[in-house]
Each structure stands twice: as C-alpha cells, then as structure tokens.
Write a structure and sequence with these properties.
Length: about 450
Amino acid sequence: MLKQFEAHFKDLGYTEPTAIQTAVYEPLAGDQNVLGLAPTGSGKTVAFTLPALANLLPGDGTQLIVLEPSQELAIQTSRVMRDWAKLLDLKVVALTGGANVKRQTERLKKRPEVIVGTPGRVLNLVSDRKLKLHLVSLLIVDEADDLLTGDTLDTVRSIAQDMPADVQLGFFSATDTPILHELDQWFGQSVTRIDVRQEDNTQGTVRHGLLQVGMGKRDQMLKRMLAMPNFRALVFFKQANTLRQTATRFYHEHMSAASLTSDLRQVQREKALQDFRLGRTRLLLTTDVAARGLDIPKLPAVINYDLPTSVNEYVHRVGRTGRMGEPGQVISLGDDHDLRDLKKLLKETDYDLVPLYFSGRTLTTEKPVAVTPKQAATVKPSADVTVKTPKATGVAAGEKPAGKPNTSRAKQEPNPSKKKKHKNRHTKNKGMRKKWRDRDAQQ
C-alpha cells in the first residue's frame, strides 16, 4: 500500500485491511485479471480502489473504467474513489443515466483519469466519440453477478471490446453465479478467482425474522413499527405500483417515509437517499434498485414488504444491514404460505429464520399468550373513582348549608314515572274523518 494511502487509512479510523482488501491488492497491482468474491459490506470498493489508483499516471487521460449496476451505486463509488484519488492528484468523473449529458461531456474535456459509470451511459458516450478508451489499462466490473446478465452482458462486452486487447480485468461480487465460472470464454482472458467469503469476519450479528402479516395489513404494520424508538428501515417492494400506493398513503398521513424508484429523476433519487442516510426520514421504500452495494451506515433494519424470489436477491437485500460489525435485523412480511416458501428457498443457506411477533411497541420472538374469556372474567378490573369537585358556592365541601332546606327541588326534578303524553295528529284526524263520514251518511 502506498504511504499516502496508509496515512489516510488510519485517518479514516481503519485498524487493518479486510480479507478481500488484503487478498486482491497484490494481484490487481501486479496486472493480473481478478475475480473477487466477498460478503456484502466487506469493503470491496476500497479493495479495488487502492491497487487500481496506484498504477495510474496523473494527466495521462482516462486509464480506469469502473462499471456499476445503478446510478446510486455509481455515485457512491465515485465519491469513495475521489476521496482516495485526490491524494495522488487524480480526477474522478461519474457518468450515469438520468444525468445531464452536456455537463458530463464538459467534464470529460478535462481528461479525468478515472470514470465511474453505468454501462448504458458509458457505451452511449463511447459510440458518440465523446469518451475514448484507447488509453484504458484496467476495467473493473462491480456487482458482476448482476451486470453480466441479459442485455447488460452485451453492453459490458461492447465496452471491453473498445479497449486495448491486453486491458486488465477486475470482477467483484458478493454472490457466485454460473457466468462467473465462464469469464475466460466471454472475455477471452484467464481470470484468477479469489473467494474470501468464508474467511471474512466483517459481518455484524444480523437476526432474520419472519412476521406473519397479510397483504392488506402490511402498511398498518409499518406504521406500528415507526412507533418503536430509533427505528429506521429500508423497505423492499417487488412491484413499483404497490410501492407508489404505500408511498402516497404515507405522504397523506404525514408518515416519515420516502421512496426510491428507477422512474424518479436523479436529483430526486439522491435527495431521498441522502435524507434517509441523515435520519430525516425513517423509512425508505424501494425496489431492488437499492439492493446492491449501497452503503447506509448503521442501518438498524431491512424489511421485505414483498419477499424475494431468489437466494441472491435475499442476500443482497439483507446485506444493507449488519455492515462493518454493526448489528442488524431483517423482517420478512408475508402470510403463512409466503413464509413457508421463503423457508424452502433458503433451506440450503446458513440463515436462521425465526418467527417474530409485534407486542406493544416492540418486536419479540416470544409468542403472545391469548387470554380466554374465563381468564378475563377472573381478573378484577380496577375501579376508576371519579371525584367531583363541588362548585364554588361559599360552602365548604362536606358541610350542610345553613337556613331552610330547598323545598323546590321536587318541583325542579320531574317524576320519571309520569311521562308526558304526546298528541297523535294522525289519531285526531282519524276521528274527524269518521265524524265527517257519519255526517255525509245522514245527508
């Protein structure tokens, strides 16, 4: 590690590198192609940042490209890399979809050494000849298990093909997928596999709970959780429509919640994420756009409003809590059938799924005991005594007034046994009609 990096490493409060940071530094700095596998929250961004920046030359144009699956993760990574790059007088520019293209093009004219971006925007700028890749010496593909799927795989390969043939490759992921065993076939180079998932000890204690709640009552359950002191959570939805309905309901009810979806403008997305990080909002409602890589310090809980359908999806969602030794809580909502399916899905993993119950203002693993009618009858209710203060009449409480007793009280209080008779207009008219009929008959 460079001396500048060692000093900054201590300034940030780190005592020693994590397992992935130690394992990949020498291979990446030594021009090897690397696949790094490590748990979520284990410091993978710093793991590839330090060796990658160490080989760059200031002022020599774009030499490093880092690809991220989402705008949020690209912006987050660019900030981390910029913090280290300024120590070596290197410039970092973020290129993300949804941002102003003209501004990004203007920044490229300053010839930054490092580009962090989403594959679609990077390829568009390369196709428009605004971004030139002929000097790139290293390509980092972060969250590789996600980026190397479907159409995105073709986009990443197209970007790599515009680089020199001997470009160094680095792939990083928290989960293993079949394509990560076929990287040499897809990219034409052999890749050294480094897996530290069993050696890593950066994960804090995370409890995985199952809370039985029907679909129609999940919004109400979120409101009840907000009553818990210091509670904050990232809430994952499967469908954007369901998310919008919940967000709209919470907005009208002035609940402390914000939404983060792919259809929002980048400025809105950044504000929602920033407000949540700073504690201005206590619930961040999102789809899986926020499931990967996002670092939210000391996040207490993750809630699965809609349950994930794959193991990798669950791993990345729950990886937002319990980072860097902090404790965390995962709360999966669903009916009995949903929770059984989740247990089957995760039965081959090491996750210990425990039933949760909401009692009072706390989550507990102890099932509340139902009180039977007989038990309820044996409990003597405490009598509520209401003391009426006498009106200010110049007489002390408890004393009898002097003089003659008030004899008009009987007149004032009506006798409940004597009810006032109301005249029935219909009956009166009925008698008159009979009288008229008799008179007509006589005539």
